[in-house]
Structure prediction request, 303 residues.
Amino acid sequence: MNKEVISEIKRLKEETGTLILAHTYQAPEIIELADITGDSFALAKKSLSAGAKRVIMCGVRFMAESVKILSPDTEVILPEPDATCPMAEMISPERVRRYKEENPEAVVVAYINTTAALKAECDVCVTSSSALKIVEQLDAPEILFIPDKNLGSFVKEHFPDKNIVLWDGYCPVHAQITEEDILKAKKEHPEALLAVHPECSKDVVKHSDMAGSTAEIIDFALKSDKPVIIGTERGVADYLIPKHPEKKFYHLCPDKLVCRDMKYTTPESILKALRNEGGEKIRLPEELIRKAKHSIDEMLRLG
Ligand code: 13P
Ligand code: SF4
Prediction:
C-alpha cells in the first residue's frame, strides 16, 4: 500500500470529520482504513448512530443510498460510482407497483440489496441477518419477497405456513456456486464445517452446517472448535484468515466468489473522494427519501 496515500487519508479524514464505512467484502486494505466495517444491517444501523457530517461508503450503490436515506442531512459519497449490485435492479419499481395494484392485500418485502426507487415502493426491507426475524412478524395473506429468490426460498422454508411469493432475482456471485463445488470442498476438508450465505442456491445451502449473513458467518466461524469452510464472497475469508492464525478457515471457490463491484474501491479513490475530486455525492429526491425511509425504518423497528 502506498504509505503517503494512507497517511493523507488519515489526515484528511480527521481534518474533515469524515467517517469511512466499509462492507466486509471490500479488499483488505480498505477494511484497514475504515472506521466502521460490517454487513449490510450493521452498516445501516451504525451509520445512523454515528451522526457524522460526511460519510464515505466503501461498498456498492445501494449501501450508499441506504446511508443517505437514513441520514438525509449527511453528505454521503460513493467513491466508485460504477460499483453497483446487479441484483438490486432485477425487478423494476413499475413492476412492484403493478403487483401491488393487482394484489392489494400483499405485503412487499425488499432485500436491502435494492435501489432506493424500489425501496420506495415496498413495505419493509430486510437484510440477510434480519430476514427471518422480520418475516416471522408479518401477518399478511400474501408476502412478495424481492428480488433474491435464494434468500427468499431460505425464508420460505422456515415459514411453511406463510404464503411467500418469490421473485426471480439472484446474486450472480453466490448463485454460481454449485453442489459439485460443495462436495469437492467437503472432500478436501472432511474435518471442516461449512458456513454459507443464503444468497447461495438451495442445493448448496442444504449441505451447510449454518447459513447466515456476513456477520453471522463470522460469528459462527469464530465460535467453532472445528475448521470452517467460508462459503461466501471471498472478502470474508480474506478478513478472517490473517486475523485469526490460531484458527483454521478455508476459502470456498476463491476464484468464483469475488464480487467485482465490491472490489472497485481503492485507497486512491477514497483519497479523491476526501479531496472532493472524485466519487459521487448521493443525491435523492426528498419524496423518494421519505417513501424509502419508511421501509428501512420498519426494518430497524422489527429487526
Ligand atoms: P450481508 O452483508 O447482509 O450479509 O449481504 C451480503 C451481500 O451480498 C451484500 O451485498
Ligand atoms: Fe450484489 Fe452479490 Fe455483490 Fe452482494 S455479492 S453486492 S448481492 S452482486
